[in-house]
Amino acid sequence: MTLYRVAPFLFFATTACALSAEPVARPEPAPTPTPSTASGPARPPAGQLPPAIPAPPAPVREEFRISGKLEQGGWIKGLVPMGTVSARLGDEEIDFDVNGAFFAAFDRDEGPVAQLEATLASGKVVTRELAIKPRSWDIEHVNVALRPSTSSEAFRKRRAVELEAIWTSRQKDTDAQGWRKDFIWPVTGRISGRFGSQRIYRGEPGSYHSGLDIAGGAGTTYVAPADGTVVLAEQDYSLEGQLLIIDHGQGLNSAFLHSSALLVSEGQAVKQGQPLGRIGSSGRATGPHLHWSLVWKDKRLDPLLFLPPMP
Ligand SMILES: [Zn+2]
Questions:
Q1: How far is the CA of 102 from the centre of ligand 1 (A)?
Q2: Which residues surround ligand 1, an ion (CB under 5 A)?
Q3: List of domains in the chain
C-alpha cells in the first residue's frame, strides 16, 4: 500500500523559496489508497511500481499578470513572473507571497507611465510598462493668499511626535491579508469630500485632500472595508482627533479620522465588516464625517477606486 503514497507536504515544502512553484496549478493531494475489492482495479503485485503517468507540462509564467485600475490613485493585483526574487514598481519595492501574488498602487500624481520590474533568480530582468490614466481633480482657484502657518512651537513639537507615530505604525508588517479581497463601504452616506481635490491660492497650491469624506451622521458605526490588523488607535491627535490605522498587508493601509469612539484596540485583528468606530468630528473637522484615507507605501490612493457603487 505504501507504494502508492506520495507525501503531499513535499509539494509545499519546496515553496519556501518565493516563486519556485507555479501557483496556478495547486498540486492535487495524492489519492488515498483504497482496499481493493472484487470490482476494483487490479493492483500491481507487491513490490512492483504502478505504470508511470506522464505529468502534464508545468505552465510557465514569463511575464507579469495584472488586473486592476490603471489610473492615478488606482491599484493593481497580480502575479510576478515565475522565478522572481525581487520586484518593484518604479522605485517602490513590491512584496509578493510564495505564489507570486502581489499588490501595488499608483499615487495621485503618478504617470503617465509606470514601470514594473522583476529580477529573476537567473539574473534576467523582466519589465512591463503601464500607461496610467490621468484624472481630472476638483481644483478650485481662490483669490485669497495661502494662509501662513501660525502654529506655536508647542504645537509643532506635538505634531512631530504624532507624525512620527503615524509613520512608524504604517511601517508595521502584520501579515494581514485584506489586500487580497474586494473592499466594501465602511459606511454609506453623502460624499462630502473627494480624494485629490485641491485649492489653489492665488496661484499657490494648497495640499490636496488625501482621503474620502463620508458624512454618515454623528455616532454612526463604520466597519472595516477589508480584513486587517489595528496598528494605531489614538484618542487625541491634533488634526485627526480619534485616529485608527488598519494594516491590510503588503504595504496597504487605511486610516479613519475624526471618530467619536473607537471600538477596537491596537494589535487587534479585524475582519471585513467588523465595527471599528463611530463617526464624529474630533480633531480638526467642521462637522461629523468619516475621513478615510488609503495608502500603499508612500503613495496616496483614491478609496473610490476600491469600491463598488454605493449601495
Ligand atoms: Zn477629509
A1: 29
A2: 193, 211, 213, 291
A3: 1-25+59-136 (2.60.40), 139-306 (2.70.70.10)
pTM of the model: 0.80
How far does the centroid of ligand 1 lie from the alpha carbon of residue 210, in Å? 7
pLDDT in tens, 201-230: 999 999 999 999 999 899 999 999 999 999
Give the residues of the chain that fall short of pLDDT 50: 1-41
**Residue showing cell 519589465:** 127
Cα 279 to ligand 1 centre (Å): 12
Could you tell me the distance, in angstroms and rounded to a whole number, from the CA of residue 8 to the centre of ligand 1? 51
- What lies within 8 Å, CB to CB, of 114 at 6+ separation is 89, 90, 106, 129, 130, 132
Give the contacts of 235 (CB within 8 A, at least 6 positions apart): 242, 262
